[in-house]
Amino acid sequence: MIAIRRSAERGHLDHGWLDTYHTFSFASYYDPEHIGFRSLRVINDDTIQGRRGFGTHGHRDMEIITYVLEGALAHRDSTGGGGVLGPGDVQYMSAGTGVRHSEFSDSDQPTRLLQIWIEPEREGLPPAYSQTNFPDAEKRNRLRLIVGKPATNGALPIHQDAMVFASVLEEGKSVTYEPGEGRYAWLQVATGAVKVNGQLLNTGDGAAITKETKLEIVGAADEDSEFLLFDLA
Fold first, then answer.
1. How does DSSP classify residue 26?
2. CATH number, domain with residue 189
């Protein structure tokens, strides 16, 4: 079964410096029908205006993944982690027992990113930070593991039974994926459009996928289509 969450149905707030869409309930946006999916708790599609951002604030007991699509994002946190992330960069932060961090657009132009929260396998973990780059060549017309347990082939680790794949599909090109027995999947389209087992998803659309033994994902836009695929327990 594929249940589509259309882009226009998401929560939306425009703060001027931040234009954000919430796939699941977050902060002041609450939708009892969309609290999360399995251990996946947050997918925020954020566009931050140039030289603006989030001041220092705290998190705890959450696995946080940041996937940069456009612009540049400067990050600093209390673990000593930090740097500037650009397109293709992925950041992982385990908030654990508590971490404080800030995030700002390190460019005169807007920065767009997906910020993802996944519930950890247990509370009270030590905070941790890591980041790396996954160039388009590694994602083009294939599924590239970017975060997972186990963290193989250069993927970033996570404290949860979950895997996150990224892909950039050309028009008409396809990838296939077979969720294992008892597994669930979520697909989030970042740019362009894809068809998932024949169902069309456009930019910003997501889909909860259950009881599907095989997924065929086809690029359905004139331009490249970029998406994330989550494999969840």
1. B
2. 2.60.120.10
Residues in the chain: 233
pLDDT at 53: 82
Residue 226 domain boundaries: 2-232
Q: How many domains does the chain have?
A: 1
Q: Given strand 73-77, what is the order of strands in its sheet?
A: 53-59, 99-105, 73-77, 82-85
Give the type of residue at 140: R
**Tokens read off for 156:** 């970033």
- Rg over CA atoms, the chain: 17
pLDDT at 104: 82
**Coil vs helix vs strand at 218:** strand
Strand order in the sheet with 184-191: 2-5, 206-209, 184-191, 225-232, 162-169, 144-148, 156-157
Full-model pTM: 0.97
Pairing mode of beta strands 193-196, 199-202: antiparallel
Positions in the chain whose pLDDT score sits under 70: none
